[in-house]
Amino acid sequence: MIAQILVVSVIAGFIGSLLGIGGGLIVIPFLSIVFKFNMHQAAAAGLVSVIATSSGAASAYVKDRLTHLRTGMFLQLATVIGGVLGAILSGIFPTKILSLIFGILLLYNSFLMIKNRKSDEKIQPAILQISKWAKKLKLYGRYFDKIQNREIEYSAQNIIGGFLMMIFAGIMSGLLGIGSGIFKVLALDTIMKLPFKVSTATSNFMMGVTALASISIYLARGDIVYDACGAVAVGVLIGSTIGARVMPYIKSRYLKIAFALILIYTAVEMIRKGLF
């Protein structure tokens, strides 16, 4: 069992770091469906995988200037508050309800990602428009795109909407153990209009802190399966380190398509588990 969990965790860490969604998206369904872990135990292992993904990918993305640290730190307050609240609520909801919520949300987000699959690799305006709040909070920046071989400038938009979405993302993290990367990426990319690669890198940076705020509650309830979580941590750390080195060389539209396909598959499996 441990060897299988280790292999799946390497894959989860690789995909999670590429898409900014955390390894929990793959680890949770695998543990709950294949090894029959209850949802709370699987969610706890998912949080461990999220922390490992964040640790493995964050340093590489910061080095490549893909992570916007100020945006991540500003939004982290909302996700931590939501993460603690979600972990508390997880002890109230039955397992099947959690599975249904997980599946429905993933299915909805997969359709959003397909709808917005166009790459952000496009011609930029001559003068970047920076909003008043983005200027005050310094939520703008630039990074070097290795595919286009040029600097890309960007600025956060709809900052209040993004902050509120991050509270919801934190609640989903604590409630479902998914690290809420799917919601963070959508908030950063769709609501705040940051480039997709910046969104995934910043999401990876934020996920670890959000998950750390939630996992203590799972630990206190006795939901941690230590040998499985150890294998998850090691595997995800290896996979996420590899993924962080590969991601800058992949076109954004391919990342978005991969993101949507993974969400659809996982959503169907979790909805089925919740219904039967």
Automatic annotation (TrEMBL):
Protein family: Belongs to the 4-toluene sulfonate uptake permease (TSUP) (TC 2.A.102) family.
Q: What start and end residues bound the annotated signal peptide?
A: none
List where the protein spans the membrane: 7-35, 41-62, 74-91, 97-114, 159-183, 203-221, 253-271
Q: Which UniProt keywords apply?
A: Cell membrane, Membrane, Transmembrane, Transmembrane helix, Transport
Would the keyword Transmembrane helix be found if you checked this record's keyword annotation? yes
InterPro entries hit by this protein: TM_pro_TauE-like, TSUP
Where, subcellularly, is it found? Cell membrane
Q: Which organism is it from?
A: Caldicellulosiruptor owensensis (strain ATCC 700167 / DSM 13100 / OL)
Which domain of life does this protein belong to?
Bacteria
This one is known as Probable membrane transporter protein
Q: How does it sit in the membrane?
A: Multi-pass membrane protein
Taken from the record, one Pfam family name reads TauE
This entry carries the following GO cellular component terms, namely: plasma membrane
